[in-house]
Amino acid sequence: MTTSPSKVALRGYQVAAHEAIQRGFAEHQRQLLVLPTGGGKTVVLAHLAATHQPRRTLVLAHREELITQAVDKIRAVTGLIPEVEMADFRASLNAPVVVASVQTLVRSSRRERWPHDHFGLLVVDEAHHSLADSYLNTLRYFDENAFVLGVTATPDRGDKKNLGRYYQNIPYEVTLLDLVQQNWLSPIRVKTVPLEIDLDDVGTTAGDYNAQDLGHAIEPYLERVADVLAEHVQRKILVFLPLISLSRGFAELCRQRGLRAEHVDGTSDDRGDILARFRRGETRVLTNAMLLTEGYDEPSIDCVVCLRPTKIRSLYSQIVGRGTRLYPGKDHLLLLDFLWMSEEHVLMKPANLIAADAEEANAITEALGFGGDLEEAKGKADADPCGHAAPAPPPECKAQRADIRRAGVRPVAGRRGPGRLCADDALAWRPGHEPTARDFGQVRR
């Protein structure tokens, strides 16, 4: 197996993903990699671009933040110098990696600057958008002569179109719960606020709740929600709402209760300053109307409030994923949920983040009750037919996992040797394989 030159070591599961992708390309031209938000998919695609040199790589993204993030990460991880194709920025024809805006390449005059066989690898960031015509036009122009890798946090698409119509294989998939158990992502604790919000009069547009209708349904409850947030003043809270006007108003309600809150949207002239204040902790509550669902990385967030209910699992995963990254002193993410009243059974709930299907999601939701640890709730829901709960990790191991997270220590990935376990062995607990406290001691640096 060819390895890629790198300045940044891959984690164990990222090594496995990279190798599985390479093997998969022996049989499949178009593949889909599934990693949860915070799993480091950009690092994997950076290594893949380096591996495929001297063939050139084209990375497609639909937001400026994603393009900037990809450029910075590829440079930091591999030392390759990507160039940008977006609006007034034009990449040279000899760039080893081009990171391009989909909206720019939809214009044939920009896309056809390169011959059909110019790129050997096409990478689609946030690949759940791949079936849109804007993506397919560019992919079809290049894909007869290149391998294609889509990367996404979830393999499903909100409008129910099947990504399998384009992608031929999923070479590797790791779940949110896998990475929580391996100590790469924060555990999630759910607190259900006893506030009933009626959604029965909310219509559907393009497969999801209509944003304007949601605004009308949610607005009467915002003062009470702000009261709840005032009880969590020590948290760094990210709030999602359906409308800009609602987000701006909710930030003001929070300020009235003594919270240091700000609103941000795509038209904010000082958007960078707002995000910087939130990063430094000068602002403790940041509200937005779906601006920060993709390409926003702030690991210190330890509370997410979703006031934008959705039917789309990928969107819900992205929202919650803004708070799942590790950070020193942070031992879990608090997810504030509400009693959304709807006759429909497609509303995404915390359990949908880790459930395989609707039946399992209902069982986990019942086990959660009005709050608790999502992983523990799944353990209760996985109880055997005799009513015995699935075995849990020993208490001393869970305690040491929490100690490791608070200290900001990462497991050692990809190292094996006499008397040393790799992180995947020690922390990827499954029923029937219970790591000991000694195992956890061997993954400290």
TrEMBL record:
InterPro entries: Helicase/UvrB_N (IPR006935), Helicase_ATP-bd (IPR014001), Helicase_C-like (IPR001650), Helicase_Restrict-Modif_Enz (IPR050742), P-loop_NTPase (IPR027417). The lineage of its organism: Bacteria, Pseudomonadati, Verrucomicrobiota, Spartobacteria, Chthoniobacterales. GO terms for molecular function: ATP binding; double-stranded DNA helicase activity; forked DNA-dependent helicase activity; hydrolase activity; Y-form DNA binding. This is Type III restriction protein res subunit. Residues 381-402 are annotated as: Disordered. Residues 22-173 form the Helicase ATP-binding domain. Pfam families: Helicase_C, ResIII. Residues 221-369 form the Helicase C-terminal domain.
